[in-house]
Here is the input.
Amino acid sequence: MTGEKAQVLIDRELYEMAKKYVEQQGTFSSVDELVEFLLRQLLEEQQGEVMSREEEEAVKDRLRRLGYL
Here is the structure.
């Protein structure tokens, strides 16, 4: 990551909910930090779930050899 920041606009109500969460939990120092954490978690989770065609074929081959397909 470059460390450069970009602006993202969200609904005011959502921002207020996030701000309240930050104030109550004390885990994050700002709404920006919370949003960055959540977005990074979501995107990394999604990336981890995607298989390449080769990986998918390897899984299918293995399942065929085991008699499941």
The chain has a mean pLDDT of 87. The helical segments are 12-25, 31-49, 53-65. The chain has one domain: 12-65.
